[in-house]
């Protein structure tokens, strides 16, 4: 059981058990009734002897300090295992807030559980918060963590091991047949992505696990099944508090999670705090779910907390529930559940405009034309020129001269090349631009290709630059990008971006004067009309869209946001074919004029004359009168500037 580097934590945990049981020699150790999956008598006698020796020097105060020390030092030492499981330990203020909120709505001496207990941080805080438990049911897959959980919760309970039931093992197996139910669940489940789970384990979860495929469709991360397991363990009158990645509420499988929560709970609260991640070291944007049933609370609410409000959150729960009809209305403009229930002053300004636009037909869900993902090639340092090994020396109608690291020069004819955007970062400070890379598109039969082309392919094989394509496609590996271009036809003038950091960009979408292609980091939008595409590019570069992104974007870092293609296809977008041609032309003209210059970072643009001209043209295009547009922009600029500043500060704090 004891892994290298974890001996000290194991000894400390055993010392706590020895202290509270009054053991004076290693021979007195026997199996605690409340601990299963770890055989104490199977441990090295020297470890038990060391534990008893350490226990002799403990006081009650020393035991409390040691318990905290074990919790704090265990997590970093699990290293790669924690990363593979996507299991991170809850920050103490967050665990304390969860416990206090649960205590506020449940009271009494409840039976509590953490199905994914880690080192027991959350259960420790629950006891400390006054949840005087009549039962503590816990499960943890890592044996050292399960032992620490038992020892630290035993310490919080001042040695009352009669209420403990801690199991070492896979929680989906140790608790799947559990017949008893508990009053409170406090947890921070693992959220390993579906594609990273072994095939046999995925089959087990779907056939024997707690989540039915119809409830948790798509490719659910592990936390979706963890929520289903927690719901199964909870009584009809109970409270569930859980740390969850925000992605739970805007993915395809997340719709099944939301359905489950709305069907099986009376009240659902989503809490966002001053933290980006509620777990130490996770890096993911996380929220707190508090769901209750049978306890008198009803509705759905969202709370955005400050540092000062963390200690008072239990008094806020249940006071700001949103009417069902309001949620349904907001969901029209914000398909993401988290964005639909999120309270934010920006939303108060933006929502009426979006709903009116959708009702009038000025806006629709998604671009009014073909949108797709860019080309995905295996080996960008072969297929996209220039790259780390070859420089682009000259590029004209006939083709491109390239030079390698050794000084070797080759000429690639234009029939094998397509202008292509490679990375969004390369075009951060401009909106109207042209690609700086060429995509190599080769036929399957190279027998008639020029010698320089065949020599470049040979270099790709010998250098290893083409190894990913060779491994994936075998013979004629060099043609896989060509086949994809032929089937997808990913050509456009408008290109939407996958990942964005608004504080470090001057533009949010790119417009090319000519039809070109791009990699998978972009989403080409082809309307067949340059003016329509330029007008849409103006929308995607506007402050209104930036505000929407700040509210509804998938948060993948303190300042990084993301829209996938499915997101772009579902969010409100100008329906340019139905709008006034004159106003569409005006928006396109402003974009081409303003966006062709190098732009400062977006936070520095807010309030500038050029930014106001672009934003005003966009709002007039979708139907706002001059006075209404000016009023909206006045409020929007102040709030967007504040939100960007908060994200920049959060980004600095996370470094």
Which tags fit this structure?
single chain; 655 residues; alpha/beta; nine-stranded mixed sheet; 24 strands
How would you sum up this structure in a few lines?
The chain is of the alpha/beta class and 655 residues long.
Mean pLDDT over the residues: 91
Largest sheet: 9 strands, mixed
Query: So what's the oligomer here?
Result: single chain
Radius of gyration of CA atoms, rounded to a whole number: 29 Å
Give me the side-by-side strand order of the main sheet: 1-4-3-2-5-6-8-7-9
Question: What is the tally of helical segments?
Answer: 26
Give the overall form: globular
Architecture overview:
By secondary structure, the chain is an alpha/beta fold. The mean pLDDT is 91. The longest helix has 29 residues, at 626-654. The protein has 26 helices and 24 strands. Helix 13 (324-333) crosses helix 15. Helices cover 43% and strands 18% of the residues.
Provide the fold topology:
Layout: H1 7-21, E1 35-36, H2 45-55, H3 60-77, H4 79-85, H5 92-106, E2 111-114, H6 121-128, E3 135-140, H7 143-156, E4 164-168, H8 171-174, E5 182-187, H9 199-207, H10 222-233, E6 234-245, H11 252-264, E7 267-272, E8 286-293, E9 299-304, H12 313-316, H13 324-333, H14 337-341, H15 345-360, E10 363-365, E11 370-371, H16 380-383, E12 384-385, E13 390-396, E14 399-404, E15 409-413, E16 417-421, E17 437-440, H17 451-463, H18 467-473, H19 480-488, E18 492-497, E19 499-500, E20 509-518, E21 522-526, H20 530-540, H21 543-552, E22 554-555, E23 561-562, H22 565-568, E24 572-574, H23 581-594, H24 602-605, H25 609-621, H26 626-654
Parallel strand pairs: 1-4, 2-3, 2-5, 3-4, 5-6, 7-9, 16-20
Antiparallel strand pairs: 6-8, 7-8, 10-24, 11-21, 12-17, 13-14, 14-15, 16-17, 18-20, 18-21, 19-23, 22-23
Helix pairs in contact: 1-2, 1-3, 1-7, 3-7, 5-6, 6-7, 10-11, 13-15, 15-26, 20-23, 21-26, 23-25, 25-26
């Amino acid at each position: 059981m004891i892994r290298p580097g974890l001996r000290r934590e194991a000894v400390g945990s055993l010392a706590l058990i020895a202290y509270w049981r009054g053991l004076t020699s290693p021979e007195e150790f026997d199996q605690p009734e409340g601990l299963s999956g770890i055989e104490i008598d199977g441990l090295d006698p020297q470890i038990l002897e060391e534990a008893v020796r350490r226990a002799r020097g403990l006081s009650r105060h020393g035991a409390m300090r040691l318990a905290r020390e074990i919790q704090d030092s265990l997590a970093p030492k699990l290293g790669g295992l924690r990363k593979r499981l996507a299991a991170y330990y809850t920050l103490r203020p967050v665990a304390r807030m969860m416990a206090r909120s649960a205590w506020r709505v449940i009271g009494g001496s409840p039976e509590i559980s953490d199905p994914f207990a880690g080192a027991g941080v959350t259960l420790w805080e629950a006891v400390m918060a006054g949840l005087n438990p009549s039962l503590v049911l816990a499960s943890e897959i890592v044996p050292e963590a399960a032992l620490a959980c038992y020892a630290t919760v035993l310490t919080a309970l001042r040695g009352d091991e009669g209420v403990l039931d801690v199991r070492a093992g896979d929680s989906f197996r140790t608790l799947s047949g559990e017949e008893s139910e508990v009053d409170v669940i406090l947890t921070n489940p693992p959220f390993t992505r579906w594609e990273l789970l072994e095939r046999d384990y995925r089959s087990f979860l779907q056939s024997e696990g707690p989540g039915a495929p119809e409830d948790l469709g798509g490719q659910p991360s592990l936390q979706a099944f963890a929520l289903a397991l927690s719901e199964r363990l909870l009584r009809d009158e109970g409270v569930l508090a859980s740390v969850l990645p925000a992605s739970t509420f805007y993915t395809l499988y997340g719709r099944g999670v939301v359905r489950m929560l709305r069907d099986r709970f009376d009240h659902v609260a989503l809490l966002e705090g001053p933290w980006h991640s509620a777990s130490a070291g996770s890096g993911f944007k996380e929220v707190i779910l508090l769901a209750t049933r049978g306890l008198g609370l009803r509705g759905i609410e969202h709370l955005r907390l400050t540092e000062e409000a963390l200690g008072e959150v239990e008094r806020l729960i249940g006071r700001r529930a949103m009417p069902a009809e309001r949620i349904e209305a907001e969901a029209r403009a914000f398909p993401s559940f988290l964005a639909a229930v999120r309270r934010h002053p920006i939303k108060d300004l933006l929502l009426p405009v979006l709903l009116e636009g959708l009702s009038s037909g000025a806006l629709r869900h998604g671009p009014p034309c073909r949108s797709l993902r860019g080309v995905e090639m295996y080996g960008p340092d072969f297929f996209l020129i220039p790259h780390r090994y070859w420089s682009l020396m000259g590029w004209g109608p006939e083709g491109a001269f390239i030079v390698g690291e050794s000084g070797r020069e080759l000429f690639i004819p234009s029939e094998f090349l397509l202008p292509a955007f490679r990375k969004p970062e390369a075009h951060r400070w401009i909106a109207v631009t042209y690609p700086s890379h060429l995509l190599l598109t080769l036929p399957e039969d190279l027998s008639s290709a020029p010698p320089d082309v065949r020599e470049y392919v040979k270099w790709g094989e010998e250098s290893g630059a083409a190894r990913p394509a060779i491994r994936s496609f075998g013979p004629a590996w060099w043609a896989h990008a060509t086949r994809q271009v032929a089937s997808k036809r990913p050509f456009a003038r408008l290109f939407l971006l996958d990942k964005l950091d608004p504080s470090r960009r001057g533009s949010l979408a790119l417009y090319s004067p000519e039809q070109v292609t791009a990699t998978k980091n972009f989403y080409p939008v082809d309307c067949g009309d340059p003016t329509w595409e330029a007008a849409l590019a103006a929308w995607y570069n506007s402050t209104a869209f930036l505000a929407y992104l700040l509210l509804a974007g998938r948060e993948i870092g303190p300042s990084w946001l993301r829209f996938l293609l499915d997101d772009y296809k579902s969010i409100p977008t100008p329906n340019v074919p139905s709008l006034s041609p004159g106003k569409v032309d005006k928006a396109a003209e402003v974009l081409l004029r303003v966006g062709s210059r190098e732009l400062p970072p977006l936070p520095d643009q807010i309030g500038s004359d050029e930014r106001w001209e672009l934003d005003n043209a966009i709002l007039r295009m979708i139907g706002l009168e001059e006075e209404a547009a000016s009023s909206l922009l006045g409020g929007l600029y102040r709030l967007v500037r504040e939100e960007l500043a908060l994200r920049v500060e959060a980004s600095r704090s996370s470094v």
